[in-house]
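User: Second chain of the day. Same drill as before.
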Amino acid sequence: MRSTNYTLTAAKLNAARGKENPYKLTDGGGLFVRVSPAGTRTWCYGYAAPTGKRREVTFGQYPEVSIKDARDQHFAARQQLAAGVDPAAAKKADREEKKRAAAVDDGLFKAFSEKFLRENLGQATPAYVRNKRSMLERFVWPVIGDKLLEQVRPHDILAIMERCRDKPGTAEKTRALIKQVFDQAIRTLRVESGANPAAALRGAIRVPPSKHHRHLNEADLGAFWRALDAQAAGGVAHPSTIAAARIITLCLVRKVEALKAEWTEFDLDAGIWTLPAVRTKMRRVHRVYLSVQAVEILKVQRELTGRGKYVFTTASKLGVPINASTMTSFFKRLKDVPTDFTPHGLRGTGATILLEHGYRKDVVELLLAHTEKGVSAAYNHHELVPERRAALAFYADLVYTLAAGANVSVLKPRPAMAA
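Assistant: Same format as last time:
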Protein backbone atom coordinates (compact mmCIF):
# COMPACT_ATOMS: atom_id res chain seq x y z
CA MET A 1 0.00 0.00 0.00
CA ARG A 2 1.40 3.39 -1.01
CA SER A 3 2.66 5.51 1.89
CA THR A 4 0.99 8.79 2.79
CA ASN A 5 2.74 12.13 2.96
CA TYR A 6 1.50 13.37 6.31
CA THR A 7 1.73 17.09 7.04
CA LEU A 8 0.58 17.81 10.61
CA THR A 9 3.11 18.46 13.36
CA ALA A 10 2.82 18.68 17.14
CA ALA A 11 3.43 22.43 16.92
CA LYS A 12 0.48 22.91 14.57
CA LEU A 13 -1.83 20.77 16.70
CA ASN A 14 -0.83 22.44 19.96
CA ALA A 15 -1.43 25.86 18.43
CA ALA A 16 -4.93 24.95 17.20
CA ARG A 17 -7.68 26.87 19.02
CA GLY A 18 -11.44 26.67 18.88
CA LYS A 19 -13.36 28.98 16.58
CA GLU A 20 -17.02 29.84 16.20
CA ASN A 21 -17.55 26.79 13.97
CA PRO A 22 -15.71 23.44 13.82
CA TYR A 23 -12.91 23.22 11.26
CA LYS A 24 -10.44 20.64 9.93
CA LEU A 25 -6.67 20.34 9.94
CA THR A 26 -5.72 17.96 7.11
CA ASP A 27 -2.93 15.43 7.67
CA GLY A 28 -3.09 13.38 4.47
CA GLY A 29 -4.72 10.29 2.95
CA GLY A 30 -8.11 11.23 4.36
CA LEU A 31 -6.74 11.60 7.91
CA PHE A 32 -7.54 14.92 9.56
CA VAL A 33 -8.13 16.57 12.94
CA ARG A 34 -11.48 18.19 13.64
CA VAL A 35 -11.20 21.16 16.03
CA SER A 36 -14.41 21.93 17.93
CA PRO A 37 -15.46 25.41 19.15
CA ALA A 38 -14.34 24.31 22.62
CA GLY A 39 -10.87 23.51 21.26
CA THR A 40 -11.19 19.69 21.39
CA ARG A 41 -9.03 18.08 18.69
CA THR A 42 -10.33 14.74 17.37
CA TRP A 43 -8.56 12.46 14.90
CA CYS A 44 -10.85 11.43 12.02
CA TYR A 45 -10.52 9.44 8.81
CA GLY A 46 -12.86 10.26 5.92
CA TYR A 47 -13.20 7.66 3.18
CA ALA A 48 -15.49 6.09 0.59
CA ALA A 49 -17.01 2.91 2.03
CA PRO A 50 -17.36 -0.28 -0.08
CA THR A 51 -21.00 0.73 -0.58
CA GLY A 52 -19.85 3.96 -2.21
CA LYS A 53 -21.09 6.20 0.63
CA ARG A 54 -18.83 8.70 2.33
CA ARG A 55 -18.07 7.53 5.86
CA GLU A 56 -15.99 8.73 8.75
CA VAL A 57 -14.30 6.93 11.65
CA THR A 58 -12.70 8.57 14.69
CA PHE A 59 -9.51 7.47 16.41
CA GLY A 60 -9.66 9.53 19.62
CA GLN A 61 -8.60 12.95 20.84
CA TYR A 62 -5.23 14.59 20.62
CA PRO A 63 -2.94 14.57 22.63
CA GLU A 64 -4.28 11.42 24.37
CA VAL A 65 -3.99 9.77 20.96
CA SER A 66 -0.59 10.84 19.66
CA ILE A 67 0.28 11.66 16.06
CA LYS A 68 2.04 8.29 15.64
CA ASP A 69 -0.89 6.34 17.16
CA ALA A 70 -3.39 8.13 14.91
CA ARG A 71 -1.32 7.39 11.80
CA ASP A 72 -0.94 3.73 12.80
CA GLN A 73 -4.74 3.47 13.18
CA HIS A 74 -5.14 5.26 9.85
CA PHE A 75 -2.86 2.74 8.15
CA ALA A 76 -4.82 -0.19 9.69
CA ALA A 77 -8.12 1.35 8.55
CA ARG A 78 -6.82 1.73 4.99
CA GLN A 79 -5.83 -1.94 5.02
CA GLN A 80 -9.35 -2.87 6.11
CA LEU A 81 -10.81 -0.73 3.35
CA ALA A 82 -8.54 -2.40 0.78
CA ALA A 83 -9.87 -5.75 1.98
CA GLY A 84 -13.47 -4.61 1.48
CA VAL A 85 -14.17 -3.97 5.18
CA ASP A 86 -15.81 -0.73 6.33
CA PRO A 87 -13.51 0.61 9.13
CA ALA A 88 -16.33 2.45 10.94
CA ALA A 89 -18.60 -0.61 10.93
CA ALA A 90 -15.73 -2.82 12.04
CA LYS A 91 -14.88 -0.45 14.90
CA LYS A 92 -18.50 -0.36 16.05
CA ALA A 93 -18.78 -4.14 15.97
CA ASP A 94 -15.50 -4.50 17.89
CA ARG A 95 -16.66 -1.99 20.49
CA GLU A 96 -19.96 -3.79 21.00
CA GLU A 97 -18.20 -7.13 21.32
CA LYS A 98 -15.82 -5.73 23.91
CA LYS A 99 -18.75 -4.31 25.86
CA ARG A 100 -20.56 -7.63 25.83
CA ALA A 101 -17.45 -9.39 27.08
CA ALA A 102 -16.72 -6.66 29.61
CA ALA A 103 -20.23 -6.82 31.06
CA VAL A 104 -19.51 -10.45 31.92
CA ASP A 105 -16.04 -9.96 33.42
CA ASP A 106 -16.45 -6.51 35.06
CA GLY A 107 -14.58 -4.64 32.33
CA LEU A 108 -17.24 -1.90 32.08
CA PHE A 109 -16.94 0.90 34.60
CA LYS A 110 -20.42 0.31 36.04
CA ALA A 111 -19.91 -3.41 36.51
CA PHE A 112 -16.46 -2.93 38.05
CA SER A 113 -17.58 -0.12 40.36
CA GLU A 114 -20.46 -2.29 41.62
CA LYS A 115 -17.92 -4.99 42.38
CA PHE A 116 -15.79 -2.36 44.13
CA LEU A 117 -18.71 -1.43 46.39
CA ARG A 118 -19.29 -5.07 47.32
CA GLU A 119 -15.70 -6.11 47.90
CA ASN A 120 -13.92 -2.99 49.11
CA LEU A 121 -16.58 -1.35 51.26
CA GLY A 122 -17.77 -4.51 52.98
CA GLN A 123 -16.67 -3.22 56.40
CA ALA A 124 -18.27 0.20 55.97
CA THR A 125 -21.63 1.11 57.44
CA PRO A 126 -24.69 0.45 55.24
CA ALA A 127 -25.40 4.20 55.20
CA TYR A 128 -21.88 4.92 53.88
CA VAL A 129 -22.23 2.32 51.12
CA ARG A 130 -25.66 3.70 50.16
CA ASN A 131 -24.17 7.17 49.93
CA LYS A 132 -21.39 6.01 47.58
CA ARG A 133 -23.82 4.04 45.42
CA SER A 134 -26.11 7.06 45.20
CA MET A 135 -23.17 9.19 44.07
CA LEU A 136 -22.36 6.70 41.32
CA GLU A 137 -26.00 6.41 40.24
CA ARG A 138 -26.62 10.16 40.10
CA PHE A 139 -23.39 11.52 38.69
CA VAL A 140 -21.06 8.84 37.36
CA TRP A 141 -22.87 5.92 35.71
CA PRO A 142 -24.97 8.11 33.37
CA VAL A 143 -21.72 9.45 31.88
CA ILE A 144 -19.19 6.58 31.97
CA GLY A 145 -21.12 3.57 33.26
CA ASP A 146 -21.21 1.91 29.83
CA LYS A 147 -17.60 2.74 28.97
CA LEU A 148 -14.80 0.23 29.13
CA LEU A 149 -12.39 1.03 31.95
CA GLU A 150 -9.61 1.58 29.41
CA GLN A 151 -11.79 4.04 27.49
CA VAL A 152 -12.41 6.45 30.38
CA ARG A 153 -10.37 9.60 29.95
CA PRO A 154 -9.72 12.62 32.19
CA HIS A 155 -12.07 14.76 30.09
CA ASP A 156 -14.91 12.30 30.89
CA ILE A 157 -14.31 12.73 34.60
CA LEU A 158 -13.99 16.48 34.26
CA ALA A 159 -17.42 16.49 32.58
CA ILE A 160 -18.83 14.66 35.60
CA MET A 161 -17.27 17.21 37.96
CA GLU A 162 -18.62 20.10 35.92
CA ARG A 163 -22.15 18.79 36.41
CA CYS A 164 -21.59 19.27 40.17
CA ARG A 165 -19.84 22.65 39.94
CA ASP A 166 -22.52 24.33 42.05
CA LYS A 167 -21.65 21.81 44.81
CA PRO A 168 -17.84 21.76 44.81
CA GLY A 169 -17.64 19.41 47.79
CA THR A 170 -19.76 16.85 45.95
CA ALA A 171 -17.66 17.28 42.80
CA GLU A 172 -14.46 16.50 44.68
CA LYS A 173 -15.97 13.57 46.58
CA THR A 174 -17.21 12.14 43.28
CA ARG A 175 -13.76 12.49 41.72
CA ALA A 176 -12.18 10.84 44.76
CA LEU A 177 -14.60 7.91 44.52
CA ILE A 178 -13.81 7.42 40.82
CA LYS A 179 -10.11 7.52 41.71
CA GLN A 180 -10.64 4.79 44.33
CA VAL A 181 -12.37 2.62 41.74
CA PHE A 182 -9.53 3.07 39.26
CA ASP A 183 -6.90 2.49 41.94
CA GLN A 184 -8.49 -0.90 42.51
CA ALA A 185 -8.70 -1.54 38.76
CA ILE A 186 -4.98 -0.80 38.43
CA ARG A 187 -4.09 -2.98 41.44
CA THR A 188 -6.03 -5.92 39.97
CA LEU A 189 -4.65 -5.31 36.45
CA ARG A 190 -8.07 -4.56 35.00
CA VAL A 191 -6.38 -1.42 33.67
CA GLU A 192 -2.85 -2.12 32.52
CA SER A 193 -1.74 1.41 31.67
CA GLY A 194 -1.13 2.23 35.33
CA ALA A 195 -2.51 5.75 34.78
CA ASN A 196 -5.47 6.80 36.91
CA PRO A 197 -7.59 9.25 34.86
CA ALA A 198 -9.04 10.84 38.02
CA ALA A 199 -5.73 11.50 39.77
CA ALA A 200 -4.67 14.59 37.84
CA LEU A 201 -8.04 16.32 38.28
CA ARG A 202 -7.70 16.96 41.99
CA GLY A 203 -8.27 20.67 42.46
CA ALA A 204 -9.96 21.10 39.08
CA ILE A 205 -12.89 22.54 41.01
CA ARG A 206 -11.90 24.52 44.07
CA VAL A 207 -13.53 23.32 47.29
CA PRO A 208 -14.11 26.02 49.94
CA PRO A 209 -12.58 25.32 53.36
CA SER A 210 -14.79 22.99 55.37
CA LYS A 211 -16.73 24.41 58.29
CA HIS A 212 -16.20 22.51 61.52
CA HIS A 213 -19.05 21.73 63.84
CA ARG A 214 -19.74 24.49 66.32
CA HIS A 215 -18.27 23.85 69.79
CA LEU A 216 -19.43 25.25 73.12
CA ASN A 217 -17.22 26.80 75.76
CA GLU A 218 -17.81 25.94 79.40
CA ALA A 219 -20.29 28.77 79.99
CA ASP A 220 -22.24 27.77 76.87
CA LEU A 221 -22.20 24.14 77.97
CA GLY A 222 -23.80 25.11 81.29
CA ALA A 223 -26.47 27.08 79.41
CA PHE A 224 -27.07 24.09 77.12
CA TRP A 225 -27.67 21.75 80.08
CA ARG A 226 -30.01 24.27 81.71
CA ALA A 227 -31.94 24.47 78.42
CA LEU A 228 -32.41 20.70 78.61
CA ASP A 229 -33.64 21.07 82.19
CA ALA A 230 -36.13 23.72 81.05
CA GLN A 231 -37.42 21.42 78.30
CA ALA A 232 -37.90 18.65 80.85
CA ALA A 233 -39.61 20.91 83.41
CA GLY A 234 -41.96 22.43 80.86
CA GLY A 235 -42.86 19.14 79.21
CA VAL A 236 -42.09 20.72 75.83
CA ALA A 237 -40.02 17.86 74.38
CA HIS A 238 -40.46 14.12 74.81
CA PRO A 239 -38.46 12.69 77.75
CA SER A 240 -36.64 10.26 75.43
CA THR A 241 -35.38 13.12 73.26
CA ILE A 242 -34.05 14.96 76.30
CA ALA A 243 -32.48 11.80 77.73
CA ALA A 244 -30.78 11.04 74.41
CA ALA A 245 -29.33 14.56 74.31
CA ARG A 246 -27.99 14.11 77.84
CA ILE A 247 -26.38 10.75 77.02
CA ILE A 248 -24.74 12.13 73.86
CA THR A 249 -23.34 14.92 76.01
CA LEU A 250 -22.00 12.79 78.85
CA CYS A 251 -20.76 9.85 76.75
CA LEU A 252 -19.31 11.74 73.74
CA VAL A 253 -20.89 9.24 71.32
CA ARG A 254 -22.14 9.97 67.84
CA LYS A 255 -25.79 10.91 67.43
CA VAL A 256 -26.76 7.77 65.51
CA GLU A 257 -24.91 5.57 68.01
CA ALA A 258 -27.05 6.94 70.82
CA LEU A 259 -30.38 7.03 68.99
CA LYS A 260 -30.11 3.38 67.92
CA ALA A 261 -28.82 2.14 71.28
CA GLU A 262 -30.36 -1.13 72.46
CA TRP A 263 -30.92 -2.14 76.07
CA THR A 264 -28.89 -5.33 75.57
CA GLU A 265 -25.77 -3.17 75.11
CA PHE A 266 -25.87 -1.82 78.67
CA ASP A 267 -24.63 -3.22 81.96
CA LEU A 268 -25.82 -0.51 84.32
CA ASP A 269 -24.53 -2.33 87.41
CA ALA A 270 -20.99 -2.30 86.00
CA GLY A 271 -21.47 1.11 84.39
CA ILE A 272 -20.48 -0.09 80.90
CA TRP A 273 -22.09 0.51 77.53
CA THR A 274 -20.71 -1.82 74.83
CA LEU A 275 -21.39 -0.67 71.28
CA PRO A 276 -21.00 -3.58 68.82
CA ALA A 277 -18.69 -3.12 65.84
CA VAL A 278 -21.60 -3.18 63.41
CA ARG A 279 -22.95 0.07 64.93
CA THR A 280 -19.73 2.08 65.12
CA LYS A 281 -18.19 4.22 62.42
CA MET A 282 -14.79 2.57 62.75
CA ARG A 283 -16.36 -0.93 62.74
CA ARG A 284 -14.77 -1.84 66.08
CA VAL A 285 -16.34 -2.60 69.42
CA HIS A 286 -16.42 0.56 71.54
CA ARG A 287 -16.98 0.67 75.29
CA VAL A 288 -18.26 3.69 77.16
CA TYR A 289 -17.50 3.74 80.89
CA LEU A 290 -20.60 5.43 82.21
CA SER A 291 -20.51 8.15 84.84
CA VAL A 292 -22.82 7.95 87.84
CA GLN A 293 -24.99 10.65 86.27
CA ALA A 294 -25.27 8.77 82.96
CA VAL A 295 -26.31 5.59 84.79
CA GLU A 296 -29.05 7.48 86.66
CA ILE A 297 -30.38 8.97 83.40
CA LEU A 298 -30.51 5.50 81.86
CA LYS A 299 -32.26 3.99 84.89
CA VAL A 300 -35.00 6.59 84.59
CA GLN A 301 -35.21 5.96 80.86
CA ARG A 302 -35.51 2.22 81.47
CA GLU A 303 -38.75 2.83 83.32
CA LEU A 304 -40.07 4.46 80.15
CA THR A 305 -38.77 2.17 77.37
CA GLY A 306 -37.26 -0.87 79.12
CA ARG A 307 -39.98 -3.17 77.74
CA GLY A 308 -38.77 -2.56 74.20
CA LYS A 309 -35.61 -3.11 72.18
CA TYR A 310 -34.40 0.46 71.82
CA VAL A 311 -33.44 2.85 74.60
CA PHE A 312 -34.63 6.11 73.11
CA THR A 313 -38.15 5.74 71.73
CA THR A 314 -41.58 7.09 72.49
CA ALA A 315 -43.75 5.02 74.83
CA SER A 316 -46.21 4.35 72.01
CA LYS A 317 -43.56 3.20 69.53
CA LEU A 318 -41.11 1.05 71.48
CA GLY A 319 -39.89 -0.63 68.30
CA VAL A 320 -38.92 2.60 66.55
CA PRO A 321 -35.89 4.66 67.70
CA ILE A 322 -36.01 8.45 67.69
CA ASN A 323 -35.33 9.88 64.24
CA ALA A 324 -32.01 11.70 63.73
CA SER A 325 -33.75 14.72 62.21
CA THR A 326 -35.94 14.97 65.31
CA MET A 327 -32.83 15.35 67.46
CA THR A 328 -31.30 17.95 65.14
CA SER A 329 -34.52 19.99 65.14
CA PHE A 330 -34.69 19.73 68.92
CA PHE A 331 -31.26 21.34 69.24
CA LYS A 332 -32.35 24.27 67.08
CA ARG A 333 -35.21 25.03 69.49
CA LEU A 334 -33.12 25.18 72.66
CA LYS A 335 -33.11 28.56 74.36
CA ASP A 336 -29.78 30.36 74.83
CA VAL A 337 -28.02 27.79 72.59
CA PRO A 338 -26.50 28.84 69.22
CA THR A 339 -28.85 27.86 66.39
CA ASP A 340 -25.96 26.38 64.39
CA PHE A 341 -25.01 24.02 67.22
CA THR A 342 -25.69 20.36 66.38
CA PRO A 343 -25.52 17.10 68.34
CA HIS A 344 -22.18 16.27 66.72
CA GLY A 345 -20.76 19.45 68.21
CA LEU A 346 -21.05 17.89 71.66
CA ARG A 347 -18.18 15.54 70.82
CA GLY A 348 -15.87 18.40 69.93
CA THR A 349 -17.06 20.34 72.97
CA GLY A 350 -16.26 17.48 75.34
CA ALA A 351 -12.94 16.69 73.69
CA THR A 352 -11.79 20.32 73.80
CA ILE A 353 -12.76 20.81 77.44
CA LEU A 354 -11.10 17.57 78.57
CA LEU A 355 -7.88 18.51 76.77
CA GLU A 356 -7.99 21.96 78.36
CA HIS A 357 -8.29 20.29 81.77
CA GLY A 358 -5.18 18.24 81.19
CA TYR A 359 -6.44 14.91 79.95
CA ARG A 360 -4.09 13.27 77.50
CA LYS A 361 -4.88 13.27 73.80
CA ASP A 362 -4.69 9.47 73.52
CA VAL A 363 -7.31 9.15 76.29
CA VAL A 364 -9.62 11.60 74.52
CA GLU A 365 -9.15 9.86 71.17
CA LEU A 366 -10.20 6.57 72.75
CA LEU A 367 -13.25 8.24 74.30
CA LEU A 368 -14.25 9.45 70.83
CA ALA A 369 -13.61 6.01 69.27
CA HIS A 370 -11.32 7.56 66.69
CA THR A 371 -8.76 5.61 64.69
CA GLU A 372 -6.04 4.90 67.20
CA LYS A 373 -2.95 5.82 65.12
CA GLY A 374 -0.36 4.22 67.31
CA VAL A 375 -2.28 4.08 70.58
CA SER A 376 -3.29 0.45 70.07
CA ALA A 377 0.33 -0.69 69.95
CA ALA A 378 1.04 0.70 73.42
CA TYR A 379 -2.34 0.14 75.13
CA ASN A 380 -3.77 -2.84 73.28
CA HIS A 381 -4.54 -4.90 76.40
CA HIS A 382 -6.38 -2.49 78.71
CA GLU A 383 -7.16 0.53 76.47
CA LEU A 384 -6.64 2.99 79.32
CA VAL A 385 -9.88 1.95 81.00
CA PRO A 386 -9.23 3.64 84.40
CA GLU A 387 -8.30 6.93 82.73
CA ARG A 388 -11.28 6.85 80.39
CA ARG A 389 -13.67 6.13 83.24
CA ALA A 390 -12.13 8.92 85.31
CA ALA A 391 -12.33 11.37 82.37
CA LEU A 392 -16.06 10.80 81.82
CA ALA A 393 -16.73 10.99 85.56
CA PHE A 394 -14.87 14.30 85.72
CA TYR A 395 -16.71 15.62 82.68
CA ALA A 396 -20.14 14.70 84.07
CA ASP A 397 -19.33 16.45 87.37
CA LEU A 398 -18.17 19.52 85.43
CA VAL A 399 -21.34 19.63 83.30
CA TYR A 400 -23.62 19.51 86.33
CA THR A 401 -21.54 22.14 88.13
CA LEU A 402 -21.62 24.46 85.12
CA ALA A 403 -25.38 23.95 84.79
CA ALA A 404 -25.89 24.89 88.43
CA GLY A 405 -24.05 28.12 87.77
CA ALA A 406 -22.01 27.54 90.90
CA ASN A 407 -18.63 29.16 91.17
CA VAL A 408 -17.04 25.86 92.17
CA SER A 409 -13.89 24.26 90.81
CA VAL A 410 -14.15 20.67 89.66
CA LEU A 411 -10.81 19.07 90.40
CA LYS A 412 -9.36 16.54 88.00
CA PRO A 413 -9.02 13.26 89.93
CA ARG A 414 -5.63 11.68 90.40
CA PRO A 415 -5.03 9.02 87.69
CA ALA A 416 -5.71 5.49 88.87
CA MET A 417 -2.63 3.35 89.44
CA ALA A 418 -2.23 0.33 87.21
CA ALA A 419 -2.83 -2.96 88.98
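Confidence is low (pLDDT under 50) at residues 373-381, 414-419.

User: Great, on to the next one.
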